[in-house]
Specification:
mainly alpha, cell membrane, transmembrane, membrane, 362 residues, 13 helices, 80% helix, AI-2E family transporter
């Protein structure tokens, strides 16, 4: 009896050592693996159609999908990161020069505003007269801000390396997707019994909802925002578009960007372009968030806004820049599985699997 117990402990210790060793080996690649799983799961229907068009040639279809990921995601992200480095450096230098000029003077057109123009102009002058100390304090913040920019640049660089690795992993996820899902289904069948297929369908449904509803909307808003900034002649259009992409996941985020751009145009005296920027922001940029996002999310599953915010910032803290794309899907899957588990014994599930049958891939 004692020998059998000792043998069981030895087997358990061996399993723990192997699992820990595997984790230590795979730990640096976890962000890339998660990103690949999210990308492949959300784009699997497109891969399946491409493979059918290529008469079942999985290797060629997987290669084309991987190249498409490079062209549509990795390449633009790399170019954007390089542009961000230039834009941020130029912005810091411009702010430094602006602060050296002293308090900002109100624009000439401010006085021409009916009823309140004179009052606003007088208030601006009184405020500018007491800003010398504020300007000096802001100057002292330039170097810390530069340090923050350097740290952010390193995080973006690390994220780009992870994304480059993820494209390599994606090829094998596409090519061997069915086998991987069958293995996952077998593991879940031992752990969850008859719920294995439903769990996989729920995970697929949730990941698709996050990618299409959140990141699809954010990308669309960023693109139309960049277009509006370029048309209006706002400097740093790519930088502002990137900020729009990230802030679109936060309540009332994009209006802070295009509203600030409109205010800058007003200050520069370009009243017509400022009005254009306001109209473009209200009718084009914000309409995407008000109409497109609810439509895309309603096609799959409903995701709490707080979960999205936690996923974005928590993903950045945990995985760096690439965590923006990992955090929300992972948290959404976790919440969905908890809801599915709790509602199993109390009533119908809150989140139903996506209709249209089970998919054989990720």
């Amino acid at each position: 009896m004692k020998t059998e117990t000792l043998q069981q402990y030895a087997q358990l210790a061996a399993v723990v050592i192997v699992v820990f060793g595997c984790y230590q080996i795979l730990h640096p690649f976890i962000p890339a693996i998660l990103f690949s799983a999210v990308a492949c799961s959300s784009s699997w229907p497109l891969y399946a159609r491409l493979r059918r068009a290529l008469r079942g040639r999985s290797n060629l279809a997987a290669l084309l999908m991987t190249l498409g990921l490079v062209v549509l995601v990795i390449g633009p992200t790399t170019a954007l990161a390089a542009s961000l480095a230039d834009d941020v450096g130029a912005a810091v230098q411009a702010i430094k020069e602006l602060l050296e000029q002293g308090p900002l003077q109100p624009p000439e057109w401010l006085k021409t505003i009916p009823l309140v123009g004179e009052s606003l102009d007088g208030y601006w002058h009184r405020l500018a007269g007491s800003r010398e100390e504020l300007v000096a304090a802001l100057k002292s913040l330039i170097e810390p801000a530069r340090a923050v920019v350097v740290v952010a640049g390193k995080a973006i660089g690390s994220g780009l390396l992870q994304m480059a690795l993820a494209t390599f992993i994606c090829f094998f996820f596409y090519r061997d997707g069915e086998a991987l899902v069958q293995s996952a289904r077998g593991i879940l069948a031992r752990l969850a019994g008859g719920l294995a297929d439903e769990l996989l369908a729920t995970i697929d449904n949730t990941v698709t909802g996050v990618v299409q509803g959140i990141f699809g909307t954010a990308l669309a808003q960023a693109l139309v925002a960049i277009l509006g900034f370029v048309i209006a002649g706002v400097p740093g259009a790519l930088l502002l578009g990137t900020a729009t992409f990230f802030l679109s996941m936060v309540p009332v985020g994009p209006p802070l960007i295009w509203g600030g751009a409109a205010a800058w145009l007003f200050y520069q005296g370009s009243v017509g372009w400022a009005i254009f920027m306001l109209i473009w922001g209200l009718l084009v940029i914000s309409s995407i968030d008000n109409f497109v996002k609810p439509y895309l999310i309603s096609r799959t599953s409903s995701l709490p806004l707080l979960l999205i915010v936690f996923g974005v910032f928590g993903g950045i803290v945990a995985f760096g820049f690439i965590g923006v794309f990992i955090g929300p899907p992972v948290l959404a899957v976790g919440l969905t599985l908890v809801q599915l588990w709790t509602t199993r014994s109390t009533g119908p599930a809150l989140i139903e699997p996506q209709s249209g049958g089970k998919r054989s891939g990720p």
